[in-house]
């Protein structure tokens, strides 16, 4: 899923702006019956997609008896918070939120940093064999993670980082920065030459050029990368599942998934667990909606 | 003379390709690649090679791996569970690539051409955001949301069926072999649909409306316009979407883990889950490594084929 999305660049900004050209015959006034039928179909599909969310929302606030008597489609007869609070306390949700937040933030920052360094050397430094290097780096992003799983498991056991959040942080820093490198290297390859020439005439070193010229100019797109890396890492499952076995270290998706099918989970508590799992990403989506749509489209348009 | 200068140029180029910063030789940039490449070697390259080595061993996780040559690979080709897992991968490709791409094309065209034009861009953007909603969730959580509806004993779907008098259709959706795979497929369509819609709608903005007007004047109907203009212009995006979704479909793991564990029997097993269970449940590390490597090879072949077909199509397009 998420692997597919990408980040913004110039193309993105062009792509995202609301439909730029109005069709000449502004047809707003003339709506045929057929148009209404198509709108109805589109709305119906939207409803079909939204229904599972609404069901989860309504049933998370019901007591099991309320669910049994009123069925899944009714609104809760009274607001019942026990399911949510029971699950909240059972998984120690604040702790899981913090774990996910910590891992995702550190990965995002480190991966953006490494992407920038790599891309600086590849795009602006134009080191030899850069095409092959980019392909090699991109491997990290393309491989199914299962191929890395056992060797990494063994490796981190040896160095005592098994069941440590740092194992997950290191792995995802590499995986996310692979994508960032690929994207930034091509963008830096077209960096305005005059700026670099002017800076080097002023006697700036490579390090200074990177931090005083390139970094400030690319900051907007780097921050888009940051958001993407954060959300992608938040949504990851297989590697956190394997490397974070301790209850105290688990991320939100892992903690919620491993409790599914547990005997103590009645129907509305399960619903509440799904609600707690989807809320954080829903909130990110609402906050970063514009950036995200921009980014998704940029990847494909590029 | 000319040859001499040219070879001199070539000599220069091979010693120092110019960087974009005047006066800085490209070789002096290697320093910036060190952290990235060191981590890449440690986390990706070494484990990858190690994993390939493990495919030639019998390794149960405790005693050191024992070299057994091609035994794992021979076993793999005769393993019915392995072939079932790839058959299920084909089902995942139908659910995550074929259906979402086709449906996404129609929906994107509908939203962009008709609804965006006649009812305003806001309605279209709102619907697009709704379609995209399942995409933002972690895959496992999306699976749990639908899994909740499909619960066998008091699940919403079964209760609704009973309430409207279709109680005979009730089923243990994820628990019986006939319905488990189709249920997972429906979930994956739900998850995946928004992605092509968003990409295609962005791509449609490139299409010049005058082309449609010209086509309409020539008497083309909507479907003819759609096929001849829309699809051909946004073909690059169609390729990107199908390729990325195909890779995602081959890699599916979370929903299977959360909902069925590959069962009942092996009716919903996929290669990624099969490898995982060999690693950590059966402790057959060598065999799990073999499955994972086979999956990697399949993904690589699919990607290369895609890119080859795409370049060939682009060339024939240019030649025309």
TrEMBL record, chain A:
Which Gene3D superfamilies does this one have? MetI-like
Q: What's an example GO BP annotation here?
A: transmembrane transport
**Keywords from the named record:** Cell membrane, Membrane, Transmembrane, Transmembrane helix, Transport
Ranges for region Disordered: 1-28
Q: What range(s) does the ABC transmembrane type-1 domain occupy? A: 97-288
Q: Where are the transmembrane segments?
A: 33-58, 97-120, 132-154, 166-188, 267-288
Q: Write down the Pfam families for this protein, in alphabetical order.
A: BPD_transp_1
The main location is membrane
Q: Where in the cell is it found?
A: Cell membrane
Annotated protein name in UniProt = ABC transporter permease
Name its species: Arthrobacter agilis
TrEMBL record, chain B:
- Spell out where the chain crosses the membrane: 29-50, 90-112, 132-150, 180-204, 238-258, 285-309
Q: What processes in GO biological process is this protein linked to?
A: transmembrane transport
InterPro entries given for it?
A: ABC_transporter_permease, MetI-like, MetI-like_sf
Where is this chain's protein located in or outside the cell?
A: Cell membrane
Q: From what superkingdom does this record's organism come?
A: Bacteria
Q: Which SUPFAM superfamilies match?
A: MalF N-terminal region-like, MetI-like
CDD domains, per this entry? TM_PBP2 (cd06261)
* Keyword Transmembrane part of the UniProt annotation: yes
**Entry keyword set:** Cell membrane, Membrane, Transmembrane, Transmembrane helix, Transport
Q: Which GO terms describe its cellular component?
A: plasma membrane
Record family assignment:
Belongs to the binding-protein-dependent transport system permease family.
Protein name (record): Sugar ABC transporter permease
């Amino acid at each position: 899923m998420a692997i597919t999305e990408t980040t913004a660049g110039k193309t993105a900004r062009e792509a995202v702006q609301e439909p730029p050209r109005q069709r000449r015959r502004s047809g707003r006034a003339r709506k045929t019956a057929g148009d209404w039928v198509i709108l109805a179909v589109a709305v119906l599909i939207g409803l079909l997609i939204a229904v599972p969310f609404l069901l989860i929302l309504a049933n998370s606030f019901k007591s099991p008896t309320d669910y049994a008597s009123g069925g899944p489609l009714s609104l809760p007869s009274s607001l019942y918070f026990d399911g949510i609070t029971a699950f909240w306390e059972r998984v120690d949700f604040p702790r899981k939120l913090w774990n996910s937040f910590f891992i995702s933030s550190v990965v995002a920052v480190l991966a953006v940093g490494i992407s920038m360094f790599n891309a600086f050397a590849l795009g602006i430094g134009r080191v030899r064999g850069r095409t092959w290097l980019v392909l090699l780096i991109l491997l990290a992003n393309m491989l199914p993670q299962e191929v890395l799983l056992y060797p990494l498991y063994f490796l981190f056991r040896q160095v005592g980082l098994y069941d440590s959040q740092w194992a997950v942080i290191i792995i995802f820093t590499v995986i996310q920065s692979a994508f960032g490198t690929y994207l930034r290297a091509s963008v830096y390859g077209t960096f305005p030459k005059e700026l670099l020439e002017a800076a080097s005439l002023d006697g700036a070193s490579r390090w200074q050029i990177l931090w005083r010229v390139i970094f400030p100019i690319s900051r907007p797109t780097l921050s888009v990368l940051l958001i993407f890396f954060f959300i992608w890492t938040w949504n990851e499952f297989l590697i956190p599942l394997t490397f974070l076995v301790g209850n105290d270290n688990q991320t939100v998706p892992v903690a919620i998934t491993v409790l599914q099918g547990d005997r103590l989970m009645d129907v509305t508590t399960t619903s509440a667990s799904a609600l707690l799992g989807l809320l954080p990403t829903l909130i990110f989506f609402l906050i970063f909606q514009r950036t995200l749509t921009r980014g998704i489209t940029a990847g494909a348009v590029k | 003379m000319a040859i001499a200068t040219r070879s001199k140029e070539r000599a220069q180029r091979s010693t120092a390709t110019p960087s974009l910063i005047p006066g800085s030789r490209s070789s002096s940039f290697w320093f910036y690649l060190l952290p990235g490449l060191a981590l890449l070697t440690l986390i990706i390259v070494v484990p990858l090679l190690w994993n390939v080595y493990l495919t030639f061993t019998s390794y149960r996780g405790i005693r050191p791996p024992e070299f057994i040559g091609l035994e794992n690979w021979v076993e793999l080709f005769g393993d019915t569970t392995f072939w079932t897992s790839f058959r299920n991968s084909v089902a995942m490709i139908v659910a995550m690539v074929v259906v979402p791409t086709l449906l996404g094309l129609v929906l994107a065209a509908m939203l962009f051409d008709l609804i965006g034009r006649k009812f305003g861009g806001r309605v279209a953007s709102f619907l697009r955001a709704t379609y995209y909603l399942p995409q933002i969730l972690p895959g496992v959580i999306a699976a749990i949301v639908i899994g909740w509806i499909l619960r066998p004993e008091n699940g919403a779907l079964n209760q609704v069926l009973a309430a409207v008098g279709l109680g005979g259709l009730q089923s243990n959706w994820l628990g019986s072999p006939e319905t488990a795979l189709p249920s997972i497929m429906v979930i994956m369509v739900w998850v995946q649909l928004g992605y092509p819609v968003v990409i295609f709608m962005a791509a449609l903005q490139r299409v010049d409306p005058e082309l449609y007007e010209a086509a309409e004047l020539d008497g083309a109907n909507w479907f003819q316009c759609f096929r001849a203009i829309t699809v051909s212009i946004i073909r690059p995006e169609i390729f990107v979407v199908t390729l990325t979704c195909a890779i995602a479909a081959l890699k599916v793991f979370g929903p299977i883990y959360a909902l069925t564990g590959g069962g009942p029997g092996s009716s919903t097993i996929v290669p990624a889950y099969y490898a995982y269970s060999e690693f950590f449940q059966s402790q057959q590390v060598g065999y799990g490594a073999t499955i994972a490597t086979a999956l990697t090879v399949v993904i690589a072949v699919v990607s290369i084929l895609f890119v080859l077909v795409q370049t060939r199509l682009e060339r024939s397009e240019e030649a025309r």
